[in-house]
Amino acid sequence: MLSSSSRAALVLGGARSGKSRFAESLISDTGLERHYVATGQAWDDEMRDRIAQHRADRGDLLWTTHEEPLDLTARLAAIDSEDRAVLVDCLTLWVTNLMMAERNIAAEFSALTEFLPGAKARLVLVSNEVGLGIVPENRMAREFRDHAGRLHQMIAAASAEVYFIAAGLPLKMKG
């Protein structure tokens, strides 16, 4: 079990399940200074539109946004403070970025997992649950699914709270 000092929460769900909206409400309810760490990269117009919609939905006047596609743990350490609530959206995009950059995924996962229990900020990490569907038909997709599944287990173990979101409804799984 996790040390009682953890202030981290993991929010999992499928695409368009309402997980980001739920995670934003967890942050808003704290009354702390809000920080948003975006891991996505705008490789095309559709992704640029998604990013713009996310910003419009949350209202960037209330949030300080940090774009960090690769060095997530270092970014979190740099902004870690007791007076802050930090939303990371999302871990599965981070996994994709790590794979594409051919980073040491095990080392990156370990660094993030080890950081969480000692973090001073209230952390909420969002991720897509990708293990509920069919077995992917190609090696890269299977590796992605496996990496995401392992990361989710590690983050869940290091978090005080874990939520699963389906159809906009939260199911509290831990904490």
TrEMBL record:
<protein>
    <recommendedName>
        <fullName>Bifunctional adenosylcobalamin biosynthesis protein</fullName>
        <ecNumber>2.7.1.156</ecNumber>
        <ecNumber>2.7.7.62</ecNumber>
    </recommendedName>
</protein>
<keyword id="KW-0548">Nucleotidyltransferase</keyword>
<dbReference type="GO" id="GO:0043752">
    <property type="term" value="F:adenosylcobinamide kinase activity"/>
</dbReference>
<comment type="pathway">
    <text>Cofactor biosynthesis; adenosylcobalamin biosynthesis; adenosylcobalamin from cob(II)yrinate a,c-diamide: step 5/7.</text>
</comment>
<comment type="similarity">
    <text>Belongs to the CobU/CobP family.</text>
</comment>
<keyword id="KW-0418">Kinase</keyword>
<keyword id="KW-0067">ATP-binding</keyword>
<dbReference type="GO" id="GO:0008820">
    <property type="term" value="F:cobinamide phosphate guanylyltransferase activity"/>
</dbReference>
<keyword id="KW-0808">Transferase</keyword>
<dbReference type="InterPro" id="IPR027417">
    <property type="entry name" value="P-loop_NTPase"/>
</dbReference>
<keyword id="KW-0342">GTP-binding</keyword>
<dbReference type="Pfam" id="PF02283">
    <property type="entry name" value="CobU"/>
</dbReference>
<comment type="function">
    <text>Catalyzes ATP-dependent phosphorylation of adenosylcobinamide and addition of GMP to adenosylcobinamide phosphate.</text>
</comment>
<comment type="pathway">
    <text>Cofactor biosynthesis; adenosylcobalamin biosynthesis; adenosylcobalamin from cob(II)yrinate a,c-diamide: step 6/7.</text>
</comment>
<dbReference type="InterPro" id="IPR003203">
    <property type="entry name" value="CobU/CobP"/>
</dbReference>
<keyword id="KW-0169">Cobalamin biosynthesis</keyword>
<keyword id="KW-0547">Nucleotide-binding</keyword>
